[in-house]
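DM from R.C. (forwarded with permission)

"hey, sorry to bug you on a friday — could you get me a structure for this? deadline for the figure draft is monday and I only need the backbone to look sensible"
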Amino acid sequence: LYHLDATSLRADLGFVLHSELGRIPNRVVIDFPGEFRILQLEGDDLLRWEQQRPGRAMASLQPGSRKTADLRLVIEAPVEGSAEDRDPEITLPAARVQGVHRASGTISLFGSDEIRVKRIETGSLTVPIPDDAENSAAALPGHVASFRFPVDTDPPTVSFSREQRRFIAQVDTLVEMKREEIALTRTVRLFP
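My reply, with the result:
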């Protein structure tokens, strides 16, 4: 899940690691773009984690043999550029788990009222998920688009514009309560 607003991009990345023939190691190294900072790393079997360097985290799992492990990494970075930049373009961050050579899954992008997504470019094997009952993310506030990728592919790039504030509105309400009536007076002031 990716959440984009005018000042930051937050990626909520979930992994289900599965090994049919072997076992999941007790230490898992996750690489991601170095400009992102870790907000959270969690999982059912997670014992502890540490950031080894910018763009790399190591998760230590509970001792034991397992064929499946789930992890959730939340990272965030500022969106570069000034408010005057026309159509900034960003690449959605992808995290790579060392030792994993095949990956598939879904991507959902959410935006705020401060931006308008203009274009999303994906790899040739990444396909859009229609906004229907199969796509539960589509019902959530701010949903822009969802995609399914059958293999590890290049991360999508997003072109967007920042919505310009046209004016500030201040609304004041005066309530007068009298014995036989209640009077409401509203004053609306618009500022550039």
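R.C.: lifesaver. The mean pLDDT is 87.
me: no worries. The radius of gyration is 23 Å.
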